[in-house]
Design brief:
Shape: globular
Number of helices: 0
Structural class: mainly beta
Strand content: over 45%
Length: 128
C-alpha cells in the first residue's frame, strides 16, 4: 500500500514556474514507477510525465516536453514536477500516481488505468 500526498500547486502568471512535490509513504518507493497526470474541468485525465523506478528513464507528453521536468529523490520518497514556461492551458488539477508495473512494459506508463495508487491532487492555475 502506498499513500501519495501532493503539494506545491497554486496560482501563477503565464511564463512563470512552479514545482510540485509528491511525498510517498512506505519503504519500497524505489520499486515504483511514478507518474504525473492532470485533469482540466470538463476534460479527461491526461498523462503529463513519468519516471521509471531507477529514475534514469523519463517520459513526457508532447505538450510539456522541454518545459516540465520530472525527478525523484528515493531517499526522501518524493517525486517532483518542475514546471517552467507555464501556459494558461496548463491549468488543471495535477495528480501524482504510482505503480510497480510488474510486466515492465514502459509504453503503459502513459495510461492512467495502469496506476493503482493516486494522490488527492493539487490545483495549478495559470493566468494569462
Amino acid at each position: 500500500q502506498v499513500q501519495l500526498v501532493e503539494s506545491g500547486g497554486g496560482l501563477v502568471q503565464a511564463g512563470g514556474s512552479l514545482r510540485l512535490s509528491c511525498a510517498a509513504s512506505g519503504r519500497t518507493f524505489s520499486t515504483y514507477v511514478m507518474g504525473w497526470f492532470r485533469q482540466a474541468p470538463g476534460k479527461e485525465r491526461e498523462f503529463v510525465a513519468a519516471l521509471w523506478k531507477s529514475g534514469s528513464i523519463t517520459y513526457y507528453a508532447d505538450s510539456v516536453k522541454g518545459r516540465f521536468t520530472i525527478s525523484r529523490d528515493n531517499a526522501k520518497n518524493t517525486v517532483y514536477l518542475q514546471m517552467n514556461s507555464l501556459k494558461p492551458e496548463d491549468t488543471a488539477v495535477y495528480y501524482c500516481a504510482a505503480d510497480r508495473f510488474p510486466n515492465g512494459i514502459a509504453a503503459q506508463v502513459r495510461f492512467a488505468y495502469e496506476y493503482h495508487y493516486w494522490g488527492q491532487g493539487t490545483q495549478v492555475t495559470v493566468s494569462s
